[in-house]
Amino acid sequence: MSEQNSIAIRFKNVCKTYRLYTSSRRRLLGLFFKSVPHKTKHAVVDMNLTVERGEAVAILGRNGAGKSTMLKMITGVTFPTSGEIYVNGIVSALLELTSGFDQEFTGRENIYLKGRILGLNDEDIAKLEPAIIDFAELEEYIDQPVRTYSSGMKARLGFSICVNINPEILIVDEALSVGDRAFRDKCTKKVKEIMQGDITLLFVTHSPEIAKAFCTRGIVMKNGKIVFDGTIDEAIDYYATKY
Ligand SMILES: Nc1ncnc2c1ncn2[C@@H]1O[C@H](COP(=O)(O)OP(=O)(O)OP(=O)(O)O)[C@@H](O)[C@H]1O
Q1: Would residue 74 count as lying in a domain?
Q2: Mutate to test the pocket of ligand 1, among 18, 38, 73, 207 (most ligand atoms within 8 A of CB)
Q3: For residue 203, how far is the Cα from the chain centroid?
Q4: What is the CATH number of the domain that holds 69?
Q5: Which atom of ligand 1 is nearest to the CA of 221?
Q6: ABC transporter domain: which residues (predicted)?
């Protein structure tokens, strides 16, 4: 395998800066005029990172450390202000489950829409469709427009697509909770099953025990920077004693 092929994710000097305005009018004007007064928030600062294929990496850090921003840039939900991001493989992100859905399309049509966005062709999606529908437990609603779904039903469909498309890179935010208790338990079981397979995993968690159970490498983030990168045991120790 060439060096490039063995890499799943690479960040090169990646920065993400948000502009904070005091009103929505100023935010709108700010799209056109750089001189509109605003504050800046550096959510990710000059980040360099390489994740090899098959690695399982826990990302630790307090609220606001920049974890979600980093993950959203990998999935393409948001873009870096500067720097380069290289992603190699089909990414499934258990983050914003309903992003990419068209409200007017039926559940079944949205499976195809989201599947294509994730890089699959219609033939592949057709093969996965029964498993996706079965897991989502939407029964007769699958041919109704998604706008008629409850938020829990939409999330269930989004989750089911993400976990059933056989992703090569899986991004999980532990804080995510989908549907009722029974469905959540089913989701946890399914994610554990996928995590144990041959997959590249990025896992945001505040729990050292869970991080240890699934990951071999740990990254600690603070104020938009990676302050520690090493084995999971060292990272947990750093987070507990030196953060
Ligand atoms: N769309 C946005 N506009 C402005 N600021 C933002 C936006 N998204 C994130 N931020 C800011 O960027 C910083 C990093 O946020 P981020 O959500 O990446 O942190 P996090 O480590 O994921 O936190 P948490 O553990 O609470 O999810 C925070 O200060 C946050 O307020």
Answers
A1: yes
A2: 18
A3: 9
A4: 3.40.50.300
A5: 21
A6: 9-243
In a domain, 4, yes or no: no
**Which ipTM score applies to this complex?**
0.95
- The answer, yes or no, to whether any atom of ligand 1 lies below 6 A from the CB of 39, is no
Q: Using the 8-state DSSP alphabet, how is residue 61 labeled?
A: -
> What are the two backbone dihedrals, phi and then psi, of residue 101, each rounded to the nearest 5 degrees?
-75, 145
Query: Hey, how many other C-beta atoms are within 10 angstroms of the C-beta on 190?
Result: 16
What is the extent of the structural domain holding 60? Answer: 52-241
Please state the domain count of the chain: 1
- How far is it, in rounded angstroms, from Cα 46 to Cα 65? 14
Task: Kindly give the number of the ligand 1 atom that is closest to the alpha carbon of 224.
Answer: 14
For residue 43, tell me if it sits in a domain. no
80 in any annotated domain: yes
The model's pLDDT over 204-227, given as tens digits with 9 standing for 90+, comes to 888 888 788 888 999 999 999 999
Q: What is the pTM of this model?
A: 0.82
